[in-house]
Amino acid sequence: MAYLVNITARAGRDLVALYDEIHAENSPAARRWYTGLEEAILNLENLPYCWPATDESRRLRHLLYGRKPRIYRVIYRVLEKRKRVDVLHIRYGARREFKTSDLR
Fold this sequence. Notes:
By secondary structure, the chain is α+β, with helices and mostly antiparallel strands.
């Protein structure tokens, strides 16, 4: 059964900032990369458990997207009873370790 992928307001802001940061509007290559990221996120509807739990919390998982040195972490949680995946945060992988309080 497919899960509903819910992109939270925070993750939505992260996506907009990332789109602007990589200049996806003006670069076909950047736009393809960004579209690939969106597709990877939406693919969580089929396989939400294929990505590992985060080091910060066993209740959170993270999808890694990109290639070194530009790997991004898509942090999400699976709400099994609701059959929903909440995408909580999208961040550059080399940033400092996040705290669960950063998700607010």
